[in-house]
Amino acid sequence: MLKLLPGLFLLLNLLVPAQAQDVLQKALGESIYVPAYSRIFSYPTRSDLLATTLAVHNVDPKTPITLTSVAYHGEDGKWLRSLLDTPVTLAPLQSTSVLVPINDTSGGVGANFLVEWSSETPALSPIAEAIMTSGSGGPGPSFTSRGRVIERRVAGD
Questions:
Q1: Sign of CA dihedral 146, 96, 115, 64
Q2: Would you tell me how many other CB atoms lie within 10 Å of the CB of residue 139?
Q3: In this structure, is the dihedral angle defined by the CA atoms of residues 18, 19, 23 and 24, taken in order, positive or negative?
Q4: Structural domain includes residue 37
Q5: Which pLDDT score is estimated for 8?
Q6: Percentage of the residues of the chain whose pLDDT score is greater than 70
Q7: Which domain holds residue 79?
Q8: Strand ranges of the sheet holding 95-100, from the earlier edge strand across to the other edge
Q9: Residue 19 counted as domain residue
Q10: What is the DSSP letter of 56?
Q11: How many structural domains comprise the chain?
C-alpha cells in the first residue's frame, strides 16, 4: 500500500493543475446544460413532487456577464418555454434565480434548463445549478444538480 502512495501523489499533481486551468479559463460566452427533476420516485407507484430553483452565480469578481437566454426543456428534449423575458446583466459576484413551482410537472421527471450567457470581455464561467426541494415545509427530499458547459465561445471564434 505504501508503495502506491508516491504514484498516487504524482497522478494527483498532474491532474489538479489541468482541472484548475479549465475552471479558470475565461470565455466570451457559454451554453450550460442544467438537469432538473420535477419529481422523484421512492416506489414504482409513489413519487414526490419537487419545486426547482435555477440559480446562476457570476463568480467573476471583476467582469459582468449577461444571461441572454434561459430555456426550459422537457424530459423528451422539447423546448417548453423561456424563463427569461429580457437579457439580465449580472454584476461581478451577483446571482439570480428562476423558479419552476412544485405544481408544474410539464417538464416530466428529467427536465432541464439551457442557460446562455455572454460577456463583452472574457469572464469566468458562472455556476449554474438547479436546487430541487419537496417544498412541504417538513423533512423531504432536497438536492442540487450542477450545470455542465456544452459550448464555449472564446475570442477568435
A1: negative
A2: 7
A3: negative
A4: yes
A5: 45
A6: 82
A7: 27-153
A8: 95-100, 51-57, 127-133, 142-146
A9: no
A10: E
A11: 1
